[in-house]
Amino acid sequence: MQLQLAPVFFTFSLGTKTHYYGRTLLHGGAKYRPTGRGFVVFHAKFADNYRLYSRSHFVKGIELMTLLIVYQIFGNAYRSGLSYLLITTPMWFMVGTWLYAPFLFNPSGFEWQKIVDDWTDWNKWISIRGGIGVPSEKSWESWWEEEQEHLKYSGMRGIITEILLSLRFFIYQYGLVYHLNFTKSTKSFLVYGISWLVIFFILVVLKTVSVGRRKFSADFQLVFRLMKGLVFVTFVSILVTMIALAHMSLQDIVVCILAFMPTGWGMLQIAQALKPVVCRAGFWESVKTLARGYEVFMGLLLFTPVAFLAWFPFVSEFQTRMLFNQAFSRGLQISRILGGQRKGRSSRNKE
C-alpha cells in the first residue's frame, strides 16, 4: 500500500476537499467537484492537470513551499532540535504531494514524447486569447475568467474576507524586507516604503511591455524587441548597482524574490475581488498580463522537474509498474513497441 503511494493520494484528495469546502463557505455556489476516485488509464495533458488543480493545490503548495524556504533560511535557532524535523518533514511531504501528485498518478506521464506534446499544448493554451465562444480548454484567458466566477455571486462579506486573506502576502513582504543584509541595522518604515516603490516600478515596466506588445509586436517587431532588450539591460544594471553599492548577497536576491513574488500575487487576488472597480479604472488588461506571467512561472516550476525525470526511461517504467498490475504493464510495453514500429513504417512509406 505504501509502495503504491497511498499516503500521497490521500493527502492530495484531502487538499481538494479542503479547498472547495473553504470556497463554498466563503462565497457559496456549492456544486459537484470530482475528487479523482476513479481508475484512470489514459494520459491527461499537462494543461488539463493545471486547469483542474491550479487553484486547489498548486498555488497553496507553492505558498507553503515559500514559507518553508524562508524558515530554512532564517530558522537557524531551531534546526538542531528534533522538533524541527517533526514539523518540516510532513510539510515538505505535503508540498511535494500537492505539486506533483497529479503527474505521479498520470499514466505515461514521464514518457518523453508525451512530455513534448504536453509542452506544445501548454504553450498553445497559455498564448491563445479568450473571448465569447472560446472554451476554457482552448484558452488560458477564458479559463482564468471562469476561475473568478464565484466572486461575481459572492456578497460583500465574501469580498471583504477575500481581501483580508490576501493581506497575508503583504505581511510576508513586511517581514522579509527587514532581513536583508543592508536593512538589518534599521527598522525604519522607509525601508518598507521603498520596497513598495520597487514593486510599482516593476508593475510599470510590465505595463509598458504589455502596451508595446499590443502596439508594436505585429507591425514593428524590431522596435518591440529593442524595447524588451532595453528593459532587460535596465534591470541587469539596477541589479549590478545594488550588488556593488548596497553589498547585496545571493541570499538577499533570493529573499527579495520571496518577498516580492507573493506581494504581486496578493495584489492580483485583491484586483480580482474588486474587478468592477479595476475595470472602471482601466487597469484590467494590466492585471490580466500580470496574471499570465504568474501562470507561466507556475507552469515552468511544475513542468521542469517532470521533464527532467522524463529523460530517464526507468522512471516511466517504475510509474507503469506502480500504477498497473504486471499483466497490464507488459501489455502497455508491447503496445509502445508496436506503436513505434507503426510510426517507423509510416515514415518510410512517406519517403
From TrEMBL:
GO molecular function: 1,3-beta-D-glucan synthase activity
UniProt keyword terms in alphabetical order: Membrane, Transmembrane, Transmembrane helix
Keyword Cytoplasm carried by entry: no
Transmembrane segments: 57-74, 81-101, 159-177, 189-206, 226-246, 253-274, 294-315
GO BP term (any one): (1->3)-beta-D-glucan biosynthetic process
Domain Glycosyl transferase: residue ranges: 1-247
Recorded GO CC terms: 1,3-beta-D-glucan synthase complex; plasma membrane
The keyword Transmembrane helix is annotated on this UniProt entry: yes
Pfam families, per the entry: Glucan_synthase
Protein name per its UniProtKB record: Callose synthase 3-like protein
